[in-house]
Amino acid sequence: MMDPALITSSLLVVLAALSIFHLQLRSIGSEPPLIKGRIPILGVAFEWFYEPGAFLESIRKRKGWIYTLYMAGRKMTVVSDPVIGITQVLTQGRVFNAPIFFAFLNKQLFGFSDATMDDNRFRDALNTKLVQLLSNKSKMSQIVELLTATYRGFVDETSGFCQREEVIDLYNFARYNMYTASATALFGPSFPIQKTFEPYIVFEENLLSYIRKVPRFLNPSGYNARDRTLEIIGQFFTDDEKVAKSSEIVRELREVFQRPEYGYTRPEDFAGYFLSIVFASKSNSVPAAFWYIAHIVSDVELKTEVENIIAANYKKATGSFDWDELCRDELLVSCFKETARLVSNVTSGRYVTQDTILKVADPLNTGSDWKKSVKEYELHKGDSVLVIGNLIHWDPQAYPEPMRWIGKRFLEENKGKLVMHADEWRSYLPWGGGGHMCPGRHLALVEAVVQCVYILWFFDVEPIDKLPSMFIKHKYGTGVIRPDKPFNVTFKRRTIPLQ
Predict the structure, then answer these.
(1) In this structure, is residue 232 part of a structural domain?
(2) Which terminus of the chain faces fewer neighbouring Cβ atoms within 10 Å, N or C?
(3) 115 close to 142: Cβ distance less than 8 angstroms
């Protein structure tokens, strides 16, 4: 039996060594300022896990547009300089490598199989095919047509929904209906939408548990929900009969899996990748569509303007809308861009592949002579660099009154007033950046406009509650923020169409 005194003294030596190591941690030379926290090894882990948004915002105010966090033995450099630094990170792919960073997320968050994770050529082929499909005008027209038909079926006169007046939590209403309509349009009517909805919502609520590698025994319901969602998706993609009745996008992406040079046909090979597609198309665009309509109906004057735009684009002869015009309308687009600016919180991560110099502007001197105040910082091979959306989108130097939703902010007339340095700074990144920008960003706009048009066309909507605040902790850095409480509104079916 070991001597208790020896055990105690050994522990004290280890703690002393860790404390000395922690005290000696500092930025060297021209490295970014180091935020190391007070606890050896853990560093700032508690602050990051407890309230990351407020924590990072407080550092930005003290340290500026670049700093390095020390957490659990690792260093992560945060860059929020829209003047020059972000562009360098997002465009210099050989130095700031995105695939290495996303490989971690794909495995940890979506459960990619080991075989598909290790095949870079296969994943590049999949991404190329997806971009081609979502850039094809004919295929996008088919998606929009099915989206509008499906969503209209939930709310029109034949739906049986809200024949007179009803009080509705707009978030749950929008989440279910847009999830269903969007999944039908993107994956086809044979996709198991209803079977995946409940487990997927639980999965969505537990995103940070997977990223933070929380042990399964501490969150069994979250891991079980992810497993169930993966199981349902895997079963679908190995069912030839159901896939044959699915969308063209599903069939063409599945064909890439089955090419002779890849030959990935197991349920687990399909499941992880297509869960990431569901996530990208539902966990961000669906809540964005909610915030879009919620902000519009909460502003009486703006709602009237939007209703007039909807009425002007209704084609009585065909009983349909001019969706192309609606999705190009300056006010509707501005409202969507403002929604994405305020509520999207996406992290673009990069792995540094070689020692390099990152140039960053001085936030205290960003006038016309900002080039004279550029600072250079050393980054080292193996470092991680994070570009976090809200640090840019909520920066008052780029967006005056940044926490206020202003639907007309992005109108041309408000350049230089409500959007500063719009043509010079890279201060709008709700869809990521570089070669890994979200290919579904155009569909997200369509989904928001379709929901807004049909709700306001068929119903007079009056808020009962005040607009809820944003609840960011549960998915910080992983996508669009949800409301912190229900948002009850009155739906009253119109007896006279909008004029």
Answers:
(1) yes
(2) N
(3) no
Phi, psi angles (nearest 5°) of residue 387: -115, 110
pTM of the predicted protein model:
0.90
Residue 273 in domain: yes
What CATH number does residue 182 fall under?
Answer: 1.10.630.10
Number of domains in the chain: 1
Helix (H, G, I), strand (E, B) or coil at 243: helix
Strands 74-79 and 384-388: parallel
| CA–CA gap between residue 481 and residue 484 (Å, rounded) | 9
DSSP 375: E
Give a yes or no: residue 454 inside a domain.
yes
Per residue in 192-237, pLDDT tens?
Answer: 999 999 999 999 888 888 887 889 999 999 999 999 999 999 999 9
Alpha-carbon distance of 68 to 63, in angstroms, equals: 10
The angle formed by the CA atoms of residues 451, 455 and 456, to the nearest 5 degrees, is 120
Q: Which secondary-structure segment (H or E) carries 314?
A: strand 314-315
- Whether residue 291 contacts residue 339, with contact meaning beta carbons closer than 8 Å, is answered with yes
Q: Binning pLDDT at 50, 70 and 90, where does residue 256 land? A: very high
Q: Residue 254 — φ and ψ, nearest 5°?
A: -65, -35
Measured CA distances, 87 to 11, 81, 84, 256, 382 (Å)? 47, 9, 6, 32, 20
What count of Cα atoms within 13 Å lies in the side-chain half-sphere of residue 187? 24
Domain that holds residue 335: 102-345+392-419+441-493
Residue 404 lies in a domain: yes
- With beta carbons less than 8 A apart as the criterion, state whether 360 and 84 touch: yes
> Please, how many CA atoms are within 13 Å of residue 392, restricted to the half-sphere of its CB?
34
Q: Where are the alpha helices (DSSP H) in 80-119?
A: 85-91, 98-110, 114-117
